[in-house]
Amino acid sequence: MATPKNKHNFETRTIHAGSYPDPSTGARSTPIYQTTAYTFDSTDHAASLFNLQNFGFIYSRLGNPTVSVLEERMANLESGRAAVACSTGHAAQLLAIHPLMLPGDRILASKNLYGGSITQFSQSFNRFGWKVDFVDATNINNIKKMIKPSHKCIFIESLSNPNGIILDIEKIAKIANLNQIPLIVDNTMASPFLIRPFEWGADIITHSLTKFAGGHGNSMGGIVIESGNFDWFKSGKFPALTKPTKSYHGLIFAETFGDFGYSMKLRADTLRDLGSTLSPTNAFHFITGLETLHLRMEKHCKNALQVAKFLDKHKKVSWVSYAGLTKNKFNKLAKKYMPNGVGPVFTFGIKGGMKAGKKLINNLEIFSHVANVGDTRSLILHPASTT
Predict the structure, then answer these.
(1) Under CATH, what is the fold of the domain 293-386?
(2) Which of 27, 82, 99, 293 has CB atoms 3.0–4.6 Å from 263's, for a disulfide?
(3) Distance from C-alpha of 68 to C-alpha of 309, rounded to nearest angstrom
(4) Whether the predicted model's global pTM rises above the 0.70 cut
(5) How far is CA 22 from the centre of its chain?
């Protein structure tokens, strides 16, 4: 679960991080451990696992050997301390935020989020009694003006879905640190190949593994990764991590587990009760997908830039939003944060309005018309006529 410091290049770690030959059979590819439960050596051994005195597997809702390989690999690729995988990207966002909040607490979130995240934050989170304030985070002063003592975290996307806005993560991280709250960054669209938010001061990273991490459009999953650098005691704002936990006989997660106390809280408490578990088969698909992450993302970015440049000069296209274009207002931030490429997704508008947009969608041959990103296939969506 806890990840050692990196000693190999990124490309090597996409294949080897967290993966070892199976101790029983010698199998080199990670096996799919399709089991719900695990035998105990004795009653004392069982008690030590349930009381979090020793590490091991109890029940696959809490952890699974195949899933553990994925967690170690993603934590390693993001240069994080530990990770907890779950069933979807939305589940990862709920999992990440839940231990931080009490009814009446607030989240400060970028307004440039995936539409489904905005719905989750503004509607479902509201039913938990959590309030969400959306801010134009492209202007740092807006964040400074809006932040309040009741905010328990700042939530942004490293590369916004789908319009490709890039935020100044380093400056936002400094504001979060000054206010003693964690910065959570959804790194789905960029992946750790293009940007590693922990290197710029972020505290927690989420992913929809469904997208570029898996890369083949065949499995659903999410993950939460912690840096291990946030001081949960300093502000007194996070009692779920710094006060005794009744279900574990008074154990204090941040005290007992130190720099991976947050991840242990997610696994042993939040995931236990919310139940958004990742299946071992899907974990296997993601492990396999990650082995080609660097190859896919490099090619995706080259292709996206070529198509964006083509469309930018096309007489029937009115605008193209892609930070890889030198005239784009986020190009400077792209060079700072994403020197290996500016991502595989962009938006554009064609002349002729709704009718022209529908005509384009209905006459494409290679592109698939689907509500997804991150596949090996080229995808397109016309939100105005579809969603």
Answers:
(1) Aspartate Aminotransferase, domain 1 (3.90.1150)
(2) 82
(3) 41
(4) yes
(5) 28
